[in-house]
Amino acid sequence: MKFAIKTLLAALLVVFLNSCKDKDDDYKAIEEFLEIKDFVWKGLNEYYYWQEDVNDLADNRFSSDEDYTNYLKKYNGPEELFDELLYPGDRFSWIVEDYEVLENALNGITQSNGMEFGLSYINSGVSNKIIGFVRYVLPNSDAASKNIKRGDVFYAVNDVELTVDNYRELLFSDASTYTLSFASVSDGSIAPNGVSISLTKEVDFQENPIHVHKVLSIGGKKIGYLLYNGFTEAYDNELTGVFMDFKTQAVDELVLDFRYNPGGRVKSAVHLASLATGQFSGSVFAKKKYNSKINDDNLNYYFNNESVQLNMNKVYVITSSETASASELVINGLKPYIEVIQVGDSTVGKNVASATIKDWIDSKGTVNPKHKWAMQPIILKISNSEGFADFEKGLVPDIEIKETIGALGILGDPQEPLLSKVLEHMGVLSGIAKPKGNLIEAQEVSSSKIFWETINGSLIDAPVGELSEDTLLPYLIN
User: Fold this and answer.
1) Would the pLDDT of 188 be above 80?
2) Is the pTM of this model over 0.70?
3) Which CATH number applies to 111-202?
């Protein structure tokens, strides 16, 4: 028995209210509470990629309205129900209480002080203490004005030392301001250096994902380098401009640095891949697979015919343990067509896509005004043109190298360790110094990017039942 999202609401409320008639619950609160859980079940039943593999999402799961209502009543809230309905192997679906925050984040707009950082164990397995290290600083941000730079290390927030138990509370709370205590790294050891800096998060801060782009002239070659930190559609035109510069300067090699890129819009991923090539316009870039309920006339993504085409037959891609989703799609999608040399660390392993599902109440896409909950469930699996999608454990690099705290280098500089390794493989490394010393390898705990991976979903402004390629723009996430 399949239920439409709103048709049973009245019946559900009658059953629920009768069971609660001796309680003092407010009617409006009860109505909203039940509506949200009803929305969760119906949305997952309709769109979830693993719907047929979850018994409680089966179309014939409930024998009556009362049976369905009693099932919903078992759960304390939408999150609990949502989590219970997820397929055991699903690492990426999630739910949010306010879709407006989500929509801003999808466009790269968040509350940020501009310091992007990683968190690492000091001595994994020996202590629960961790440290933070600055990966990069966003221009025109509070962190930029405080002279914080890549490679800086901090060990405490508001005079409280960071541990695996408190870092979320200290670094990702609603507090707009916090003070960091910094340390120095020398010969593999870390020591406080007496520097403390207060940082304030700016509301609605927008990050430009094109962080560094340049052409390096080394060893008789021109090398186009792009550090790209998120597939954000709002910057697609600017991305075209970067590739125009590469084309104008007639680059011989192309390096795509995705080490801090957790994903983004598929559309932007196809755009970048098409700019880098061009000789495959109209060919299948990737294939998608939904659950059996979703009918999509177009199950393929195709290379675009872009105004700028580099026509590369080889590309170097720098990756890390945070490289995910649309970044992995570019790597996997290009491999059947050109040589892709991956340098760095194994990627996240996200071969699926999610989409934002809101509580639409009519065929016009009107969102239920009683709440702002939205879901970001996995709705499809994506493979390359050859059907390969089996990289749940990540895409393994051809040349393995990891960042080390204390020797991060300058992003885009030939002496930066990961880029240096790429240049060495190209055969143009002559005369470039390599970092020395007993350095600390980053043992990832979390990062500003990883924490916000639950914001890298997609926005669908279309009601349930009106799914199409025009309205469904899936994000590949972390």
Assistant:
1) no
2) yes
3) 2.30.42.10
